Amino acid sequence: QVQLQESGPGLVKPSQTLSLTCTVSGDSITTNGYYWAWIRQPPGKGLEWMGNINYSGSTLYSPSLKSRTSISRDTSKNQFTLQLSSVTPEDTAVYYCALSEGYWGQGTQVTVSS
Questions:
Q1: How far apart are CA 95 and CA 107, in angstroms?
Q2: I want to staple 73 with a disulfide (CB 3.0 to 4.6 A). Which of 8, 56, 68, 80 is the partner?
Q3: 57 near 70, Cβ under 8 Å?
């Protein structure tokens, strides 16, 4: 069974870069056909897909976040990462990593505040 675990700082200052890592166990992030996503949910709002990286390393980003978002991977560690630059308090949310087959991490709260 695939398991995903998000990790990273819970508090980020405005204008800084938010960095989160998703560690995957139970399968390889290079398994053919898999897409690995970052999704967030701001308080009181719905889920927002931010972008994904696929089994071959290709990325796709939400148009609204594309200018600030970067998703990369480390195949030796079976991890993929999210970087969101120039954060504001509006980026405060629970951040999830997920696999296209329906597996999700438990989520991690990130608060943007000075």
A1: 5
A2: 80
A3: no
pLDDT tens-place string over residues 50-82: 999 999 999 999 999 999 999 999 999 999 999
The DSSP line for 68-107 is TEEEEEETTTTEEEEEE-S--GGG-EEEEEEETTTEE---
State pLDDT tens for residues 6-48: 999 999 999 999 999 999 999 999 999 999 999 999 999 999 9
Q: What's the number of CA atoms in the CB half-sphere (13 Å) around residue 78?
A: 13
- For residue 79 the two structure tokens come to 């991890």
Note whether 6 and 110 are within 8 A (CB): no
